[in-house]
Each structure stands twice: as C-alpha cells, then as structure tokens.
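Handout, section B. The chain below has 220 residues.
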Amino acid sequence: MAFPLRRVTAMTSERFINGPSNAAARAWLARNQWPDGRLWLWGPSGTGKTHLLTAWAHEHDATVLDARLFSTSSAGGRIRVQGNLAIDNADSPGDEATMLHLLNDAFSQGDRVLMAGRLPPSRSHFMLPDLASRLRATATTATGEPEDDLRATLLLSLLADRQLVVSQTVTEWLWRHLPRTGNALVSAVERLDEAALARKQPITRALALEMLPDLLTPEG
C-alpha cells in the first residue's frame, strides 16, 4: 500500500537553480525597492515562481498567502498582515476584495508585496476595477521555460528530492524525449515515482514508456 507521503523540499535561495531563463526575475527580487513597493512575478508552471517567492519571503520576513484561499468570509473579517507580504497564485484570487485590502494595507504601512501567477496582470481578469488598475500599474518580471543546461540539472534535482536512484542512461533518455518545459519534468517525475513505488520496481525506460505516453516524443 503506497501512501502519498513526500519529503518537504526547502525552497531556499541556495537550492534554487539559476539560469538565463530566470535571471531577470532574480535581478528584480534582489532590488531593495520596487515601484510602489509591489512586484508581480509570472511565468509558466514549473519554472520556479513559487520557489523564488518562498525564498524571498524567508529572506525578507514576509507572510506567505495563497490567493486561491481568499474568501468572502475572510474579507468580512479583514485579514490584516503586518510586514512584507508574498501572495502566490495572485492571478486567481478566491476573493478580490481581500486582495485589494491587503494591497492597500501594505501600501499604507510602507511594506513590500511580491505576487506570483502564471499570467501577467494585463492578461488576468479581475472584476474589481480598483484591483485591476492597481495590478496593471504594478512592475512585472517573468520566468521562462528552462534552457537545456537548466533542464538537465532540474531533472536530476527532482529525482534527488524524491530520493530516486535512476541510471544515467535512463536519465539522459528522459531528458532527450520529454517536452522542453519545467512542468513536463515535474509531472514526469511525479508519475514515475508513484508507479515505481506501487510496483516496487526501479524506474526504467520501459516503465517510462508505459507511464508517460502523452509526454514522450517519438524516438525517430
């Protein structure tokens, strides 16, 4: 019986994999000030946005909130945060009034707010005009899909985080045949880990072919 227990990976700046695809985002996060104290970090899934947000929050003693969990009831109770704030999934808030109040509080207190989402504010839909205009006036930076060197390091890191021992031949084969996105690597490692654990067998090319038919490209 396989239980979905996972070792929590520390999302620190030391463990983040640097590369050209995230250099601009890292440069913005390293700044001491942002226009109006706000920054919006966006990019595809699996490109390190949550890792960067969490690491920044740790370094700047910021409270981390998931915007999807904002609710009408919480808005009525008025969530109040003292100090810097980091909001993940900012492009899909559960309650927009809560998010607007948090931004207003941070601005009046002189605190910084880092927000992360898959889309930039200009391509996100917000019902509250005040929130929409505030976010569209926010400075933005982005992470891109990983380049080849970063993809190779990321794949090895994902396997190591789950304490998976995979032969170099299989690892290199996966790297060549998986899509060139961070999200594909994350999804592939999760599926292979679950299958190998359930079957009590090592991760092989045969197992990958069986479990990842929608991800793997033809061998040609």
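Note. The radius of gyration is 20 Å. Compare this with the example in section A.
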